[in-house]
């Protein structure tokens, strides 16, 4: 079982460092293996040789990460796995996440970001994420010095929309509520989308021509126009507004849609809620692979570690799907061991528990014994030390 999993990781890894030198391939393959087992991007925790010190091996990994560019290879690998699965109604989820690095003042290209967990502005990085059918197609660091957030977001949608041949329905959270962005999606890119609106948004009802605040619009479906950047009604572009009470004791959800076919309000809300898959991918990257603990100062090394975590998540997703689809005896053996693992740990069958299973099943990295603490004999008694405030 261990050999099958290790071979599966190794075979998928070959595509991302095909253009690298032999030393670079060795370093990247060791980093990938270390990510799967240790679940951390701290280079000193990924060392795998007893003959060299942890510091020496970490310096080697750091050196090679600064001389290669893995972003395009990892994104091409991820896109290849789902490209043929994207149909006209497949949900393509886009969202942003942040990495808090408030104590890392020397990291290159730090910017001020909003930390969603603390609800505060901190130093860190902003990441653009795109997910399809559980695969993380993008985990792109936003370079605030070169392009604006809107420009990068539109370029990402354009690139992937062309790759999918216009198929798929994009799902956006209310943080992407923008009049110009919606217009570009409909007129320039001609993509289908479902986007959640902020409650303070004003729309123009097509039937009456009246301007309405969303908080005053009752449950239902309405053809609407939105205002342009000058505050005038853009009658050339029509959208569908869906207001649905999908949860009891909660305010209704308000969605702006551009869809080629007719769907019920329940179906449209279901499309939007599939966007939560990208949130789970972000959570997985931060909890299972400790995304926020990256310590490298160089920007290129930072980006490479980000995409390697993206790659690790996608390989886990592929293997998780594979063990449930195929009936090969080796794969069935992995599935049996996985089911024993979740039963022993009282977990449910999902991708998170499967990642935990992989981390426990793979051969461990080299464990270096910790140096014993030096025992210093005190001249004073414990009672005297307590009086002095040492305890």
Key structural traits:
single chain; 391 residues; alpha+beta; Transposase Inhibitor Protein From Tn5, Chain A, domain 1; 2 domains; eleven-stranded mixed beta sheet; 18% strand
Summarize the topology.
Layout: H1 2-13, H2 22-38, H3 54-65, H4 71-82, E1 91-100, E2 111-115, E3 120-132, E4 135-141, H5 149-163, E5 169-172, H6 179-188, E6 192-196, E7 202-205, E8 211-213, E9 220-226, E10 239-244, E11 253-258, H7 265-273, H8 276-287, H9 299-325, H10 329-345, H11 351-361, H12 382-387
Parallel strand pairs: 1-5, 5-6
Antiparallel strand pairs: 1-3, 2-3, 3-4, 6-11, 7-8, 7-9, 9-10, 10-11
Helix pairs in contact: 2-3, 4-9, 9-11
Integer tally of domains: 2
Evaluate the radius of gyration.
25 Å
The low-confidence parts are none
CATH architecture of the largest domain: Alpha-Beta Complex
Query: Would you state the CATH class of the largest domain?
Result: Alpha Beta
Gap between N and C termini, in Å?
50 Å
Beta fraction of the residues? 15-25%
Characterize the biggest β-sheet: 11 strands, mixed
What fraction, in percent, of the residue positions are helical? 40-55%
User: Based on CA inertia axes, which overall geometry fits?
Assistant: globular
Superfamily at the CATH H level of the largest domain?
Transposase Inhibitor Protein From Tn5, Chain A, domain 1
Structural category:
alpha+beta
CATH topology of the largest domain: Transposase Inhibitor Protein From Tn5, Chain A, domain 1
For this entry, what is the oligomeric state of its chains?
Answer: single chain
Contiguous helical run count: 12
Average pLDDT: 89
